UniProtKB/TrEMBL annotation:
The keyword Protein biosynthesis applies. This is Translation initiation factor Eif4e. eIF4F is a multi-subunit complex, the composition of which varies with external and internal environmental conditions. It is composed of at least eIF4A, eIF4E and eIF4G. eIF4E is also known to interact with other partners. It comes from the Eukaryota. Belongs to the eukaryotic initiation factor 4E family. InterPro entries: TIF_eIF4e-like, TIF_eIF_4E, TIF_eIF_4E_CS. Keywords: Initiation factor, Protein biosynthesis, RNA-binding, Translation regulation. GO terms for biological process: regulation of translation.
Length: 262
């Protein structure tokens, strides 16, 4: 099944391949969308594909997701928690497109801004209890003028909420991030582990690679990295890197050494 972004100003229009949802309220091409709404008793079930303004049935996502925004620092020693703002939590296809159509495109954000899209209950911070044993896949786009960053960020968000970055039982993907900097754009996918099983499954959480061998853990992460690279449409000559959050924290202003590359 494919989904395309809504026709809205300069929003990206190219199709996004997904094995499940989401589907754009204004761009789906599934022939079933044209069927008449079903009627259960006297209650007419109207989806967004029958009436995009007056629907009463939503298409749920597997998880709830929260959008966060980091505003640029003022240069006065701002606290990170003061810069990080929780925007909204949603759990349906329709709500996602409603949010997307009403926020500033990534390409229009000020320098040192970030968008973070994370599973509900997970803060986009290394210190979060569900992130502290994890890491991230990332890639920097340095030719900013030639980068379709709005389209790429949309595709990564769709892959995350459509659960196509990992297999159903992996439980690794925590969220996705885009950073706007002077010399580059950077997109990342945060994972729960660094390929090793977390003690006690991750502070009581059932996920976290519990019971996985280190070999299997690495295989899961490498598969996420491959899918990440595919979504970004990077050529084989380009490399995406995986680094642990702990290593990143210790490296300070320098880049952490990559644990894995693809």
């Amino acid at each position: 099944m494919s989904a395309s972004a809504p026709a809205n100003g300069d929003k990206p229009q190219s199709p996004v391949d997904l094995s499940t949802i989401p589907i754009s309220p204004e761009g789906g091409n599934n022939p079933d969308q044209n069927k008449q709404p079903s009627v259960a008793g006297s209650d007419e079930q109207i989806t967004v594909f029958h009436d995009k303004d007056n629907f009463n049935v939503k298409h749920p996502l597997m998880h709830k997701w929260t959008l966060w925004f980091t505003k640029p620092p003022s240069g006065k020693g701002d606290n990170w928690n003061d810069l990080l703002k929780e925007v909204i939590t949603f759990n349906s296809v329709e709500e996602f497109w409603g949010v997307y159509n009403n926020i500033a495109p990534t390409g229009e954000l000020a320098l040192k801004s970030d968008y973070h899209l994370f599973k509900e209950g997970v803060r986009p911070e290394w210190e979060d209890i569900q992130n502290k044993h994890g890491g991230k896949w990332s890639y920097q786009f340095r030719e900013k003028k030639n980068v379709p960053i709005d389209e790429l960020w949309l595709h990564i968000m769709l892959a995350a909420i459509g659960e196509t970055l990992e297999d159903e039982t992996d439980g690794e993907v925590m969220g996705v991030v885009v950073n706007v900097r002077k010399g580059f754009y950077r997109i990342g996918v945060w994972t729960r582990t660094i390929g090793k099983s977390i003690p006690n499954g991750g502070d009581g959480d059932v996920a976290g690679g519990k019971g996985r061998t280190q070999e299997k853990g690495k295989e899961v992460l490498m598969n996420i990295g491959k899918k990440f690279k595919e979504v970004l449409k990077l050529p084989p000559s380009e490399t995406v890197e995986f680094s642990g959050h702990t290593d990143s924290a210790h490296s300070g202003s320098t880049r952490a050494k990559a644990k894995f590359t693809i």
